[in-house]
Amino acid sequence: MRTYLLLLFCAALYGSNFVLGSLLLEAFPALHLSVYRLMVSSAFLFIYLVATRGLTKITFRDSVYLVPFVLIGMLLHQVSFFTGLRTTDATTASLILSLAPIFTALFARLFLKEPLTKRMAAGSIVALTGVFFVVGTGGIMGTAITEGVWIMFICMLALSGSMILMKKLTERMDAFVATVYTTVLGCISVYPVAAWSEPHIQVHPQFWWWVLLVGSALLIQGLCAVIWNAQIRKVGAAKASLFLNLQPFVAMILGYITLGTPISLTQVAGSVLIISGVVLATLQGQRTRKTQDDKLKLSPTEG
């Protein structure tokens, strides 16, 4: 129960990240905001690593997956996330990113040769139908897909791709160590992009904006990373990922309370379909792995 409560705590904070990001964009330029938060979280994670485990050398074999992860999972993901939030409301952004488990499974089938079951395919169709309800054109929503929606799709694809790269990376090094190094290197990679695309920008927000920035970075990108990685080792990635399906609900509620973002019936219907599809696909993956484990346990006695 303690583990599940900690995972619920992290999922709630991850969901609030969409709303907090939208709020902080009122005071900070998008890419500078990403850099500032990465600086805070990098410092926190690096100090925590040195104090608890010490530094670990990075080999050339590690960099084969470490460098692509930094470029895709940190640079592309961070840039597209905060850029997309400038023109996309927090609820829609969270619903798009909730497709990440589905596309992660598809990428795993392509690049890791993991099986794609019928239920996974059915879950993908249900989830994509939900996205059409939320951001589709024509008779359902009556609005065109904005540039911000496309950018959030890129963000979601970058997140899915980074999960595949992280799986390969954690086969070579400890998951928490990989998290620290990728966060630090991500901060280094995002900084020149921010300086080039948003030059000569002077940031003079009020004190409380800085408090919100530092607090959100420490809680969401720092503390949650430590807690999440620790709990995944206890319950497994498949079961832990189910808690991420709560993100759209958290973003929808907080967006309505803090930003006044209206909640439409199509968004509610779309969120139900998206989360149902993701749960359907994820549960199947969990059952498949459990069946395979049972077969492995029985095989010695059968032989």
Automatic annotation (TrEMBL):
It comes from the Bacteria. Residues 3-135, 148-282 form the EamA domain. The chain crosses the membrane at residues 31-51, 63-85, 91-112, 124-142, 148-166, 175-195, 207-228, 240-259, 265-283. It holds the Pfam family EamA. It is a multi-pass membrane protein. Its main location: membrane. InterPro entries: AA-Vitamin_Transporters, EamA_dom, EmrE-like. It is found in: Cell membrane. SUPFAM superfamilies: Multidrug resistance efflux transporter EmrE (SSF103481). Keywords: Cell membrane, Membrane, Transmembrane, Transmembrane helix. PANTHER family: INNER MEMBRANE TRANSPORTER, S-ADENOSYLMETHIONINE_S-ADENOSYLHOMOCYSTEINE TRANSPORTER. Belongs to the EamA transporter family. This is DMT family transporter. It comes from Paenibacillus dokdonensis.
